[in-house]
# Entry
Amino acid sequence: MDALQLLLSGLSNGCVYGLIAMGFVLIYKASEAINFAQGDMMMLGAFITLGLTNEQYFDLPFWVSVPMAMLLMGAIGYALDALILRKMFGQSQIAVVIVTIALGFVARFVAGAIWGYEPQSLESPIAGLDFRFAGLALGIDELMVIIVTIALTGALYIFFARTKLGVAMQAASQNQMAAFYMGIPVKRMHSLVWALSGVIAAIAGILFASKGSIDPSTGLLGIKAFAAAVIGGLGSLPGALIGGLLVGIVEPFAARYIEGDIARIMPYLLLVLVLVFRPHGILSQVQSKKV
Amino acid sequence: MNLLDLQNVTLRFGGLVAVDNVSFSVKQGEVFSLVGPNGAGKSTIFNMISRFYDPAEGDILFQGQSILKKASHDIPHLGIARTFQNIELFEQASVLQNLLVGRQRHRRSNVLEEILFLPKVRKQEHHHRLAVEHVIDFLDLQPYRDKFISGLPYGIRKVVEMGRALAIGPKLLLLDEPASGLSTEETQDVAFWIEDIKKVMGITVLMVEHDMHLVNSVSDRVLALADGKILTIGTPSEVQNHPDVIKAYIGSDEEDALT
Amino acid sequence: MRIIFKTSYDADIRYFSNRVPALWYLALLLMSIALPFIINEFWLGEFTLMLIWAIAGMGLMLLVGHSGQASLGHAAFMAVGAYSNVILQEYGLPFILSLPLAGFFAGLAGVLVAMPTTKLHGIYMAIATIAIGVLAEDLIVILAPWTGGVSGKFAPSIEIFGINFDRYGNVSGLYWLILGITCLIVLGYKNILRSPLGRSFMAIRDSEISAQAMGVNIARTRTISFALSCAITGISGALMGHFSLVFTNETFNIVISIYLLLMIVIGGLGFIQGAFIGAAIVTFLPSVISFSRDAFFSNSAIIPGIESGMFGAILIFVILFEPMGLYGRWLKIRSYFELFPFYRRDMFRRQKSYLKTERMR
# Structure
């Protein structure tokens, strides 16, 4: 009984990690760059929704502010790539990593300057609701997170497999040169991938914020999500979700059954173990360089 | 005496047999060339000698000793140097530093001595520099000594690659397409250098090359490969007139013409 | 315009290629030594802090700038240095022994981290080191019996042969001491760069394949670079402990690691000078921000997080407009004046190294 509750909260946390991790993977697949600001983009998405929804700010209906936040984050993602990352083409991967880290710092500062550093909670219609079932209290918010994640994963799958834009994006990320010759605007595809991961970040942020409170350093959660992405294998979208779920489930169980301090480091221990024994993740795609 | 022996070497990538039961020997002091169409397994053979790939079967001997137990970084210490087909220089360093890396084989100081830069290290640096200056003189690289690789034109980079391999002071030099992408004049220079490397320096050369003029003018013996199999070994003219070789090179074109 | 005639190989081995830069750096050193007589104790403290950051920056620079491996967890090694230094002193060792030993232990920790991760590349290495940075923070709490856990450790004031170098009692003394240590590390660093070891670092940075073909043992070289880098960083950690007097797990958290990395990138990767420029920015940015706030806005409240926000913004600008860092920009300005009027815009242009893919093509 107890285990079921832990599993549910683990799954819902894991879904949020998984969504952020999917953002990492999308960008990695497209440009072999890692967006360390993905967690901060999630935080920003959550705060934008909060700013639009909450009474003290704009006080819009929740269902109006959600699509607005998604659009806004998509635009921010597109702009980041078009204005900054595209200009870095040709610089090393690590330079890109460093820039995205810096972007995260800036995002945290901007969020703090606008919404303050105190934890706030999103006034969402599902927050705090739960329903009782056979002696368990299952949070509606937690269930919602899981349902939305499943729906989003399905939508992404259809997008990449069936739509023209999705296929073009895949092509551009698998072989830039060939895609370019086929007349696919590779640069714009990259920006669109960033926009897409901005939208996903917004969704992850909204889901996260509807489960609890957020503050500008919420984005540091991204590090955990990043561990999830690597555990799953950076090149694989399903891997990202699996990694996220794994990290999400490990956490509450470790917190329950292992001593507190050690429980906290479990995701990272898991990450180190994966890196040492399966360096490219559980579902790996990387081969060594050819001479 | 045989410097290098490949004995029944086979390598598979998944289901693809890249090198199929290949045996040949390179004699001390000769220039030995590998020719064949793209994908024949020439560079793969180099990569096995460099120990980047493990052959599935067979053995590779250098001076009568198997090198299959050695790691990649031990190979230069035995006296085998190589260049790469798609130039692999140290981009963010000067030509001089690139060549000096080749002297790693002759490093006789440990980390602590180098941090303190003891007189011994300084003396050793002078020796390295002298050896490298010989190579620079040999290849006429003087004007580029302090230039960064990342700013050099392709032709010069190609020469620096050769220089870096020579700086090792090898017994056997593996040249992977030394003339690819070079102009006729530059290829002519390469031909002279290979002659001198053999005659003056006494270094044995194993070369992969597509430019048949270069192959003919410098090689003592030529091995023709196709689809990982040996077609024939012999003098340049023997190989060039061998029916199988002609078929391997132009056979596919004929098929194309028929269809 | 300056023309340098080299008459012996030593011209390329010496620290300075000719007398002009040698004199400039001598002047800089004399200025640094005279600093305590010029500025007040507050600013001297700031300069001391800058030197400590510069040492940490040099440690990371050796790894990132010269052997091409990213570390996003270097604060962990500062922590190893700080804790082992203080713990050794608690066992009665004098500072003069505990400091190098702290460096040694930090280097050892570096080896332990490097050994299982030598197969990891680029981004994966960065990830592994992040994990180590995060783990270290929690490990300090878990190892509370030795580390004091969340209540932290108290660093005694430094004493060498009866002379006390207290953080507040002898500010100039502490500054000179740390200046001396900094100079020693710079010399050692320069020596590494001009010896075969430095070239093997450069080799694994620019092309691992080629490094192997030149006889460089990659696993060993990477481990050595990690060990040396962590040892230097550990020493800076130990000094940081003495400087801040009390330190806890929070003192060396993951944000500090990231700051270190951003710092050396802003300063200029691959230049020792870059570590110092970056350190100056990290140290003096908060003061600059607070002074300009007081000057321009009369009644402004303190905005938390403005430092890291500014820092991030500076970094983005530097990377976009001057990938060689501030020191690289300085080199360009200098050669503009040296070569006037013959400087060409593309003089420092390097071929872009287009996306080196890690995936199979």
